[in-house]
Specification:
The chain is of the alpha/beta class and 295 residues long. It folds into two domains: 2-48, no CATH class; 63-292, P-loop containing nucleotide triphosphate hydrolases (Rossmann fold, 3-Layer(aba) Sandwich). The protein is 33% helix and 16% strand. The chain contains ten helices and ten strands. It has an eight-stranded mixed beta sheet with strand order 5-6-4-7-3-8-9-10, with helices on both faces. Strands 1-2 form a two-stranded antiparallel sheet. It is globular.
Length: 295
């Protein structure tokens, strides 16, 4: 790196000597850019060129956008298929809540990948919404700021257009959680939340909204948000979620809107752990280790 640093200094001195324009006129009247030393030219073309840098950061946890982790991506696509094709097209659930009984079960991982998977459809698009206004963190999946976001829209500080962000994934938009609030129950109960859902849904004819929420048993917001939802996906982490907590979570929102249970971190062949107790659809998704699990 010392040679590269010296080359950079040399190029800077040369640029200052030739003037701020960094170019000189040729006989034909055209401008000829100064050539950089080979060390700098090769380095900048790889690491420093703005054209080469990605516009957004895509988290490695967004497995449906990567070639690796094929098995996990396929399980996410099974959930998408169930949403898009289990009912007639006009009856397909377009507003979907992904939740869990408690924290640490992988609902954010499932919500983000489900929204990205929907956006990979031929006609469909999706808006992923971080509805955790207590501890917003889903923006880190895309390297985006948390502000402004959902809470800022609900309090009337910004417009809908200001909170919808590009993710770098085609046809996938994102709404971050926004400013941390203490009155989150009042916000999700407000008319502004109804307005948000209606306006966001109207942006695309084939658009879907996927809400990542706080845990059902620990907080009140998901139960209120459920009234705005067409369907609910419940995430259950294998060998982690207590049966009693799952029972309580299902009773809080009712079975009518639950599209199915997603068994996260489940070994292959053990998808029907709760099969005798609950009706619905069962999927398995296993990714990462316990120490790196995303909520």
């Amino acid at each position: 790196m010392s040679k590269v640093f010296e080359a950079l200094q040399k190029a800077q001195k040369e640029k200052q000597r030739m003037g701020t324009s960094g170019a000189r006129a040729t006989k034909s009247g055209e401008k000829e850019a100064l050539s950089l030393p080979p060390e700098v030219a090769s380095l900048s073309s790889v690491a420093f060129s703005q054209k080469e840098l990605p516009k957004t950061f895509i988290s490695p946890w967004l497995v449906v956008c990567r070639a690796s982790h094929y098995y996990v991506a396929e399980q996410i696509k099974r959930i998408r298929t169930q949403i898009l094709h289990s009912l007639p097209q006009e009856s397909a659930p377009r507003v979907i809540m992904v939740t869990s009984a408690g924290p640490g079960e992988g609902k954010s991982f499932i919500a983000a990948n489900l929204a990205a998977s929907i956006a990979q459809g031929m006609k469909e698009s999706a808006i992923l919404v971080d509805a955790d206004m207590r501890r917003p963190g889903l923006h880190k999946f895309f390297g985006l700021p948390a502000l402004p976001g959902l809470s800022d829209f609900l309090t009337g500080k910004v417009t809908l257009e200001e909170v919808i962000k590009d993710t770098g994934v085609p046809k996938l938009k994102f709404v971050p959680g926004g400013s941390i609030r203490e009155n989150t129950v009042e916000l999700v109960s407000s008319d502004a939340m109804k307005t948000f859902v209606t306006k966001a849904l109207s942006l695309e004819k084939e658009g879907f909204l996927v809400f990542d929420t706080t845990p059902l048993v620990a907080t009140n917001e998901p139960k209120i948000l459920a009234t705005h939802m067409d369907a609910i996906v419940m995430v259950v982490r294998h060998n982690f979620t207590p049966r009693e907590a799952l029972d309580r979570a299902i009773n809080l929102v009712g079975k009518e809107k639950i599209l199915g249970l997603v068994f996260n971190d489940a070994p292959q062949g053990m998808m029907k752990l709760y099969g005798h107790a609950y009706s619905g659809y069962y999927y398995g998704a296993r990714y990462g280790s316990d120490r790196t699990r995303k909520d």
